[in-house]
Every structure is written in C-alpha cells, then in structure tokens.
Amino acid sequence: MIENNFLLSDETVRLRGEMKEFVNSVDPELLRKMDRDEIDYPFEFVREAGKRGLLGLRFPEEYGGRGLSWLAESVAVEEVGVLGMGLGCAYSMVSIVGEAIHLFGQEWQREEFLKPMIKGRKISAEGLTEPRGGSDFFGTTTRAEKKGNRWILNGVKRFIAGGKVADFYLIYARTDPNAPGHRAMTAFLVERDMGVEIEDLHNLMGFRGMGTARIAFNNLEVPDEYRIGEVNNARAVFNRMMIPERLTSAAGAVGLARAAIEVAIKYSAKRKAFGRKIREFQGVSFKVAESIAKLDSARALVYTAARAADDFDSGRSRMDPRRLVSEAKMIATDFGWEIVNNAMQILGGIGYTQVYPVERMLRDMRLAPIWTGSNEIMKLLIQHEAYKMLDLPSEDRDFEKDAMDWYKEFEKVYE
C-alpha cells in the first residue's frame, strides 16, 4: 500500500508485482513456526524462491540470475522484508555470499556454489562476527595456517545466521600473524562436512527460526582451491560484500517498517475511543504522518544508493557508493525502528500482545541498527568519506566569501 514506483523502470515495477505474488504465497504458519523456533531454517521458502527464479537477481543469466540492477534487487528485498528479518536475510544471503564468489571466485566455485545457491538448492552463511567483537572486523582472531596445499583453520564465529544448517560458509581468517588486520586476512569457502562444529544455538529476542549459531573450527583443513581472492587481501572481498550486505539490510528494513505502519493505519481507522476513531486524534494521525514521511525518505535514499552502485559498476560514475550505502543502511534501519515503535504506540496494549504481528516486527527490527555493521560504524564511514572530499577539486561556489567580513583573514584563527 505505502510504496512508490516513481524512480523505477517498467521492468522493475513488474518485478515488484512478481515479488508481491511470491510474498503473498508464503504461508503465515511459516512465520509463526519460525518465531516459535520450531524450525531450523526456512528451507521451503528459499527453494520456492529459487524455483521462481527470484534469487540472485543481479547475477548473470549463465549462473541462473537475471542480470538485473542493484535497484531492482533493492525493490525485491523490500517486498520480502515485509515478512520479517529472518526471511529477508535468507533471501539476501544469496546476493551477499554470491557477490564474493561471483567477483573473486574461480569458475569451478561459481559452478559448484553460486549456481546451486541461485536455484535454492544450497544454503550459504557468512562468518564475520566473533566472540571478541563484530564491528572490529579486521581484529579477527580466527587463524588459517598454510601447510602444503591446505589451510588449517582454528577459531570461532558467532551469531551466524543459518550457521546450524548451511551447506557452506564464507569464512574470513587471519593468515599473516604479523601484519595489520587489513593486510592480514584471507577469505575461504568452507563446507559444513569438512568438520565445522556447531557449538551453540543462540536464543534470540527476534530473528528466530534461522538456525543462528556459534560455529567453531578446530584444525579444520581447507584445500587452497577453496580460497576466495588473493592471500591476505580479504579486505577487497569484504568491502565489496558490504554493498549487498548493507543495501539489503536497508531495503529489508523499509519493507518491515512499511508492514508495521500499514497494520497500525488499518487499526486506527477502525478502533474507537471517546466516541471517535482514533485516527481522528492528532496524537495518532501525526505519528502516522511522521512514519510515512520517514518511510518515504528511507526508501528514496535506499533507491539512490542502489542507483549509485549501478552507476559505479557500469562505469557511468567514479564515485564509490559506500558512503551512500552506509547512509541508506543507517537511515533506513534507524527510521525503521522508529516507525515500528510508532505502530506499537498506535495499537496500544493490544500491540504488545501476539494478536497483531507488530510485537514480532518490533523484536525483529531491533536487530537492524546493530547487524551488518552497527549504525555507529556507519557514521564513522560517512564522516570519513565526507572529509575525504576536502582533498578533491570542487566546482562549488566559495561559500565563505558570502560573509559580510569574509576578507578579514586575521580573524580566521585555527590554532
């Protein structure tokens, strides 16, 4: 209901309709089973998406994708996002892990891993967060030591979505104990049956039914041909993966926030208090207005960031999209959290029950500003990219000269 297609091509609008049809086919009981932790992973959801050709939309047709844009994928993820963070993550993981394999992997890896992922036949997971921390990615302590043509992995990863059931994992490990983190890490594909140990299943506030686990590697052997990218250059893989990682987080948050406020709008148009529908009270109607404005703002920024990624990849722009992607992730997830809270407030006490899905949406959405790089990390990236612009030539007006006493250089003291 609360969406817009103003920035989209006819092809992408048709894709939205296709995604809506798929999302509407999902049995609500699947969401309930996930929230009760009665299933380990939404396998049937992923398989059905694969059968419909809706996974890995950006990847070339030769691997099972459709060769679509970042913008098209963002629209698709927004639609899946209405179902919750869990299914949004399951859907997006193909894009996230697939990006590393497609751009940095070998052809046999694309055949063995990327193609089955896009068809919904293999489940992937990524190993980023460790018990010592998540946002400090380059402080990773998982180690990989080269012995002959094999690497020996030792370490632990936690909060791994799909960790319990994944067929394979994209794992980052330190391969040079003496170099700084950004020059010391290598990425690997690790199959579960190589000896990945499932140490613990996390009891989460939300985001349930995803087999989120703590996994361990104890002298696990990985052949060198399973390496992704160059030795000690996982930084390149990680930085590229952060585009789909954060764009899908942002788009999914827009979808979930949209679902929550739509529930609240419908409720406020029916619920009466003091003899009037509560939508007629300014306290309620203004929350709706603020939520819709923030939803539209977040969506516009997500679409803009996606277009920036498309232009960068096509060579139409030399501007790295990471600043806009970071902004989209921060704004969409912060606004998403505010919007779901507004929806809860509009519903009042009944919203705090399981009669409506808003309480589940609230528990899900609370994860969004934390994962895929906390929003505090997004702020660090945004300001860093902004200050880098000081060193670039500019065609902008010299705004300082618009001051009345601009010429008084003796007053401009900086030390």
Per-chain topology:
Layout: H1 10-25, H2 28-35, H3 43-51, H4 70-81, H5 85-104, H6 107-118, E1 124-127, E2 143-147, E3 150-160, E4 168-174, E5 185-191, E6 197-201, E7 213-223, E8 227-228, H7 234-268, E9 272-273, E10 276-277, H8 282-314, H9 322-347, H10 358-365, H11 375-388
Parallel strand pairs: 1-4
Antiparallel strand pairs: 2-3, 3-7, 4-5, 5-8, 6-7, 9-10
Helix pairs in contact: 1-4, 4-5, 4-7, 4-8, 5-6, 5-7, 7-8, 7-9, 8-9, 9-10, 9-11
What value does the Rg take, in angstroms? 23 Å
User: What general outline do the C-alpha atoms trace?
Assistant: globular
The amount of beta strand, in percent, is 5-15%
The helicity comes to 40-55%
Order of strands across the main sheet: 1-4-5-8
The overall pLDDT, averaged over residues, is 96
**Secondary-structure element sequence?**
HHHHHHEEEEEEEEHEEHHHH
Q: First CA to last CA: what distance? A: 55 Å
Supply the CATH superfamily name of the largest domain.
Butyryl-CoA Dehydrogenase, subunit A, domain 3
User: Spans with pLDDT under 50 lasting ≥5 residues?
Assistant: none
- Total of domains: 3
The top-level CATH class of the largest domain is: Mainly Alpha
Main β-sheet description: 4 strands, mixed
Overall strand count = 10
Q: Classify the oligomer.
A: single chain
Number of helices: 11
Tell me the CATH architecture of the largest domain.
Up-down Bundle
CATH topology of the largest domain: Butyryl-CoA Dehydrogenase, subunit A, domain 3
